[in-house]
Amino acid sequence: MTDLTTLEADVLAQVAAAGDLAALDAVRVAALGKTGSISGLLKTLGSMSPDERKARGAAINLLRDRVQAALNDRKAALETAALDARLASETLDLTLPAPRRRRGGVHPTMQTMDEMVAIFAEMGFAVAEGPDIEDDFHNFTALNFPPKHPAREMHDTFFFNPKESGERMLLRTHTSPVQVRTMVSQKPPIRIIAPGRTYRCDSDATHTPMFHQVEGLVIDKGIHMGHLKWTLETFIARFFETDAVTTQFRPHHFPFTEPSAEMDVQCDRTGGEIRIGQGTSWLEILGCGMVHPNVLRACGIDPDEYQGFAFGMGVDRLGMLKYGMPDLRDMFSSDGRWLDHYGFSAFAAPNAASGLS
Question: What DSSP string runs through 31-43?
Answer without folding.
Answer: HHSTTSHHHHHHG
